[in-house]
Amino acid sequence: MRRPADPSVDPREAAHEALFAVRFYRRGRTPPLGQDRFTNAYVAVVGVVTFASMFASGIIGLAAPQECVERVCRLAEQAQASALPWALLAVGAGLWLTGAAGPIGASQERLTWLLGSPADRGVLLRVRYRVSLVLAGAMGATLAVIPLLATIDPSAGAPVTALVWTAVAGAGGGVVVVAVGTVVQAAGSLGPGVLTRLGQAGVALGGLLAVVAAFGLSLPAIPALSADGAPALPATVTVAIAVVLARRGRGMLASLSVATLHRAGRFTGAFGDAVLALDATPATIMVAARRAESRGRFRSRPVGGTGAAALLRSDIRRALRRPGVLTAMVLLVPLPMLVAAVINSMAAVIVLGMASAAWTRSAAAGYLAWARSTGLRRMLGLPGHRAAPALLALPAAGVAAWTALGTALAGLPLIFVVAFVACGIASTLDAGAEVKPADLGVIISTPMGAVPVGLVQRVTSGTLLVALCVIPLLLTSSPLAVLVSLAVLAFQVSSHRRPR
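Structure (tokenized):
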């Protein structure tokens, strides 16, 4: 039975309330009451004012004159030398992260409501799509303006025109990232595909340009990107591309499947929980699950040739096919320089030693597979003195190049590169060797006294092996410190010649 209309309620006000409730139900939320509206508005205003004041104070601190330390502030001396690496790193990182699952996702409750709703799925996802574009544009504008503000002299005044156009270009770049992610997500080619490759290429190119500028080499000057000029042309082109891609992404929202929305929602939810709780466990579990899903998609490729050369060629092909470790190494080349400038050179030595050991083990996956599998060693039929050098040549060369750049940027002696490479190879040999129980009480009597053999074996294995290589470098810069690392490597080669 239909209820009679209340004469005390204005029909236009009732229609407005009904439309307001429908909008909230479409977003999967309950419409708030009158007092809740005031509370939400008050919290929103206070939050906007608080974060705006924090952002303004941070910008003022960046714009204040700071004392530069050698190569650390060299990127901030020229706007075109600092803005270009920053932009490439930001866009590359955004594409890399977006390529993991896509920017548009939904929770299980919202998916249930989407399935039961007669409305078009593209219409229901427009609000979420617009919010993603606005947030990406704001983040892109912030990342584009910060390097420019660091180069401004407060006494000369801020170039307002350049700041505005730079912010517009950055906002357009952020919108491009989300729009491209949405288009690729709707096309169904997401996963280990084009976005991940483009993101890795952008991150690697930005890291290389940052290294070039840090060394003091002049980048090609672009007048439209300089601090005193107005980058109107790049901003206009970026915004035009962003508008075209955003409209195309909006038109493809209806083709997003429920499974795709759920997978993207789980991915973004895991990272949101990790950020809010300051705990990387949810994100780690999600990344491990996605890696498990993606395994088996690459067909096995036959290795051409015979002998040790075939193993080296296989390692090179694998590194080019999955350049994750290489991209991370290129991105973190300026890290020792920053550590040496902010803390001291001893901290840079520790960072270089730990990174060389970790990355050599990561890049030497072929050697670890060969060392830990008796059946694989028997099937290859190569002796250890031929297979091990072939499988360790590429990781050693990559770590040598990275540590050479790191030591040069941090102002350390280049002879330390030999110690870092020896430390990385020794750590990899120890990781592929048979795990022996630690018996610290084993002592051998010699004419010179008792030698604690068990303690020596414990120190020259595991995580203490890296410390044994790094500590002499902290005490002295003479070649004697490098001889300790070479002695540790020789001990590993002699004791782990035949892995299990």
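Residues 69-294 form one domain. Residues 14 and 277 are 42 Å apart (CA to CA).
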